[in-house]
Amino acid sequence: MCVVEWRGRALAEFPELRSVIEHEAWSCHVFFIELLDLVRDAHRRGDVDLLRRAYGFAQWCLEQPGGFLSNAAVVSFYEHAFDEWELRDEVARWLPAQVAQRARPLWEWRLPADRLAEVDRLLSSGDHPG
Where is the DUF7674 domain (predicted)? Predict the structure, then answer.
């Protein structure tokens, strides 16, 4: 996957992050950090359009061949999906099943056991796109 491809798609989906996307020295990891800030605000505001675009973009990256974008999505977006714990119910609803398979080892490392158990419960409830 070439850098131009993710930047072009990201720019089409997120013109509000143009300065981050077009900054040549910044990678998609920086973009995902900025995108997470937007996602958290969107959850709080109930901005379904932005949530659909953001989670859709992250899933698109997850599905790309070659590993670069897929790994970036896992370590710079999905790994931090539950960092703002009060949003866990909303976040879990947007995560497809394959995310848990890829990100759970990272959540095991980052989350206390009780929180990891809650994430497992939320993701097994069936109330998510996966």
Answer: 11-100
Report if residue 82 sits inside a domain. yes
**Across residues 64-88, what is the average pLDDT?**
95
| CA 91/CA 82 separation, integer angstroms | 7
Q: Are 92 and 119 within 8 A, CB to CB?
A: yes
Which domain does 85 fall in, by range?
A: 3-124
The whole-angstrom separation of Cα 20 and Cα 18 is 5
Instruction: State the pTM of this model.
Output: 0.89
Q: Taking CA 96 as the corner, what is the angle to CA 40 and CA 50, rounded to the nearest 5 degrees?
A: 35
| Domain assignment of residue 94, yes or no | yes
Domain count, the chain: 1
